[in-house]
Amino acid sequence: MTTEAVNETIKGTTSEAARGTKTGKALLNLLDLGITDGSIEFVIDGVSRRVGNASKMPEVVVRVSDPAFLDEVLVTGNLALGEAYMRGDFSIDNDDVAGFVGVLLRNHLDEQLVKRLGLVMTMKMAAIRLANKIRGRFGNIHLHFDIGNDLYEAFLDSSLAYTCGYEIADGKSDIEQLQAQKFARICKKLRIEDGNRIADLGCGFGGLLIYAAEHFAITGKGLTISKKQAEKANERIAQKGLADRIHVEYASYETLTGTYDRIVSVGMMEHLTDAEYPVCVATIKRSLTPQGRGLIHYIGYNGPKNHSDPFTQKYIFPGAQWPKLSQLAHELERNALGILDVENMVRHYTLTLQRWLEKFRDAYPRLDQKRYDLPFKRMWEYYLGCSIASSLYSEVALYQILFTNDYAAPIPYQRV
Amino acid sequence: MEERTFFEILDRFVDDGCLEFVQGDRTKRVGRNGATPDAVVRILNPRFFKRVLAHGNLGMGEAFMDHDFEMEQGTVTDFLTVLARNRLDKRLARGLSLRTLARLLWIRLSNRVRGIRGNISAHYDYEDDTLFEIFLDSRMVYSCGYVKDPGGTIEEFQRDKLQRMCEKLRLQPGDRLVDIGCGYGGLLIYAAQNFGVSGKGCTLGKRHYERAKANVAAAGLSDRIQIELTPYDKVTGKFDKLVSVEMIEHLQRSEYPHYMDVVSRLLTDKGMGLLHYIGCTERSNDHDPFIQKYILPASSQPKLSEVVGELEDHDMAVLDVENLVSHYGPTLRAWTVDFMNNHSKLDANRYDDRFKRMWQYYLECSAAAAFASAGALYHILFARNYPPPRAPLQRV
């Protein structure tokens, strides 16, 4: 969402009746009962109240300047929390959003809240979903990815990879290394060889394609439905002198033509609806050579229901949902694409998100403060903080599924 | 008539590899021109063609048991691998007659009626363990090994498999481990000796139970490991780690939800489990008719999506999936070699020639399936809740 849109939306989300008349006691009591692992200190009007396990030092201190939102949280959950944080109705010492949301998730407060969420939330959620559906996939991608390349340049690595990286050591790598190590690992898993033709569905700024072209004598094509990404990607490809071997098209995945030895898709599945999974996997099947291999890298969901958080739905990734492993495995099976390996790299996501957050905070003073004002900054911090917490304490997964179109071919004994 | 059809099909579809068939003084080659044959098959009884066309692999297996053909060059595995690689198994099965289908249905039905306990006994409770002793490793682990070097021994394959499973589960001293379908107890004993765990195993095989108990006692671990002769859903207690090796293949698909209820109930909040099973990468998970009838009645090969779907429905998080199907080839090859070298030690009154040929065919066609079919060997590592926050970043 752009800054203007954010301000427009959060204005007046707190109902007038609620403002200043309630104290949020109900929420604090619920937290006190629900939190057994850890504790949180709330400071409201100079009075402090500790909730959770009283024998433990509080992990986070929350300072509330306008308590009205506390009652909203009981109605709309994380959406109200996020919007209140953006408005500055509360702050967290050290801006530790991840620590705060982490305590809630660790104690399954999200489930308790969801159980209490009534009709209002159901309707709000439905309204958000409906708006996203009407806007369609192109519009949603535009909303998130066309905010401005300067923002992404500020917090991502130089290849502008906006997906989970891979740590080969003990967590000390910077974001530059994390992304390069991820590219190397994907190439290794796919056993990319000189002469291969590669397609990258949802290629973003082309980082993976460029990496592959720099390390192997490959040719290839990337598709993205963000115009800014396509332009920028081709610019970078030209700068590196790779334009004769790889290029990026502003087009949707299902328009892919030709056949490829390797097909990769990193961080695109999340932007498709369930109904599109069969189309996407069928596209891969029809575009792979008989000996071809593929890899899908995506944020998945480990639970009965494939859902996405309302805050993320509304502000960050409109229309996104996390596919379950069983859903994609089923599509691969239906298309006789043999599954060789699945890695859940969610721990690496925690690390990647932490690096992004550090870099964003570092770079924020240098960003255009008119386009990225304080509520925007707080929205972005809240989004990254929540994502860190859910990567640690929720059903979120980060899956890499490796598969082959030639299951009868010999498979190496040791995996990557 | 059948002979002509048989060769017509092979001529049309075998292009990867080459086979030679000898009948009397006639020879017939199919497949790649000018290549050295991967296998030479001598047809001893022409009913071979009819049996194969009518019943696919079931007919082929019975033809082998009855000496309708023998291998003149190469092994049964070599022969079947060429067929599997060219998808002949699918093509022959497509022409299944109504009679075959009825027969298949009858096999399934009779297995269902007998129930799981009866089926396990049918496969595993031959009167003593001599059959398994002559081809398994010293721990008598009857499941796919882990191959570091394909020239290694079955002893190494199984030890490396047990070690790998323990490492994936990050077993540590003091952990309580439960093994659902524990066989002769090899994994539990290994984990107790090398990782300091205690635990419990359950099995439906009476011979498994007795021998596993004896093995545990011989290792001096009776105070740490319990073996129970009981259905998996009667096991009680809470465990930090759970394993189940080549067990869910014996369950009806309708039983998967109940099985996962039990898995979830047995694990502590921060618990982890590892399922090791023979799966299928394609649409249908129907097991081969020969295996159905003679070897593992009522078994099936669950698809990854089926098992993962059950884990998701039970809110358990999948951490890692490894497809080890290539490791089954060397495992089965090692078993076959040991079986062929040692089967003369078997009591001829109880294990006649037809039985031995059945067992050989089973091992060899399973190897072919591992080399060139839609079969899979999945290791699914999962957490009872969300993935451990302080888990190591790199997988095993």
Supply the key terms.
heterodimer, A: 416 residues, alpha/beta, Nonspecific Lipid-transfer Protein, Chain A, 2 domains, 7-stranded mixed sheet, 4-stranded mixed sheet, B: alpha/beta, Rossmann fold, 14 helices
Structure description:
Chain A has 16 helices and eleven strands. By secondary structure, chain A is an alpha/beta fold. Chain A has two domains: 3-117, 2-Layer Sandwich (Nonspecific Lipid-transfer Protein, Chain A), CATH 3.30.1050; 149-404, Vaccinia Virus protein VP39 (Rossmann fold, 3-Layer(aba) Sandwich), CATH 3.40.50.150. Chain A has a seven-stranded mixed sheet, with helices on both faces. In chain A, helix 12 links the parallel strand 8 (260-266) and strand 9 (288-301). In chain A, helix 3 packs antiparallel against helix 4 (78-87), helix 4 (78-87) runs antiparallel to helix 16 (374-393) and helix 7 packs parallel to helix 13 (310-316). In chain A, 50% of the residues are buried. Chain B has 396 residues and is α/β, with parallel strands linked by helices. Chain B folds into two domains: 2-94, Nonspecific Lipid-transfer Protein, Chain A; 130-383, 3-Layer(aba) Sandwich (Rossmann fold), CATH 3.40.50. In chain B, the strands form two sheets. In chain B, strands 7-6-5-8-9-11-10 form a seven-stranded mixed sheet, sandwiched between helices. A four-stranded mixed sheet of chain B has the order 2-1-3-4. In chain B, helix 1 crosses helix 2 (47-65). The radius of gyration of chain B is 22 Å and the shape is globular. The model of chain B is unreliable at 108-114 (pLDDT under 50). Strand 10 of chain A pairs antiparallel with strand 10 (317-323) of chain B.
Write a compact overview of the structure shown.
The complex is a heterodimer of chains A (416) and B (396). Chain A has 416 residues and is α/β, with parallel strands linked by helices.
Could you outline the blueprint of secondary structure elements for this entry?
The complex is a heterodimer of chains A (416) and B (396).
Chain A: H1 3-10, H2 25-34, E1 39-44, E2 47-52, E3 60-64, H3 68-76, H4 78-87, E4 90-92, H5 97-106, H6 109-116, H7 119-145, H8 149-155, H9 175-189, E5 197-201, H10 207-215, E6 219-224, H11 227-239, E7 246-250, E8 260-266, H12 277-287, E9 288-301, H13 310-316, H14 325-334, E10 338-344, H15 346-363, H16 374-393, E11 396-404
Chain B: H1 2-13, E1 18-23, E2 26-31, E3 39-43, H2 47-65, E4 69-73, H3 76-85, H4 88-94, H5 98-124, H6 130-133, H7 154-168, E5 176-180, H8 186-195, E6 198-203, H9 206-218, E7 225-229, E8 239-245, H10 256-266, E9 267-280, H11 289-295, H12 304-313, E10 317-323, H13 325-342, H14 353-372, E11 375-383
Helix pairs in contact in B: 1-2, 2-11, 2-14, 3-14, 5-11, 7-8, 13-14
